[in-house]
Amino acid sequence: MAVLIWNIEFYPSAGENYSPEDYINNLSSTPQEVASIKHRLSAMRELNIQDWPRTWVKNFTYHKIKIYQLTASENHRLYFGIDGKTIVVCYMCKKVRQRALPKDLKRAAAIFAEYFNEKG
User: Fold this and answer.
1) CB 89 within 8 A of CB 80
2) Does residue 2 lie in a domain region?
3) CATH code, domain with 108
4) What is the extent of the structural domain holding 26?
5) Which helix (H) or strand (E) holds 114?
6) Is residue 1 part of a domain?
């Protein structure tokens, strides 16, 4: 049995604007694509950060906020931050270019900052 290193939290919660959990649940993609997204998140829970596949995860700093990008499938990107031993999934979007769009990084960083403000 695998040892879980990370907890995963979705923020904002289901039902709120930009909820990554709602995004995943409402994907009109193939079941294989949704399974791929869930598999990658599950696999990351069991790995130390330095062992995350480099083809999956990139990190960015946007206005002093460290954000990670997971290429969640061929067509989607998922953005998250780290809070202790918790992966905070804060934004998900459709992949439209090879490079991350500045507006997506900005939104992910803003949501992650809001997570910390709300947490106190």
Assistant:
1) yes
2) no
3) 3.30.2310.20
4) 7-119
5) helix 102-119
6) no
- Phi/psi of residue 49, nearest 5 degrees: -55, -40
CA distance 57 to 4: 18
Q: What is the pLDDT of residue 1?
A: 57
Closest by CA position to 71, among listed 86, 49, 55, 60:
55
DSSP state of 120: -
pTM to 2 decimals?
Answer: 0.91
Residue 33 has what pLDDT? 85
> Rounded to whole angstroms, how far apart are CA atoms 1 and 22?
29
Across the chain, mean pLDDT equals 91
Structure tokens belonging to residue 13:
């919660």
d(CA 95, CA 76): 5
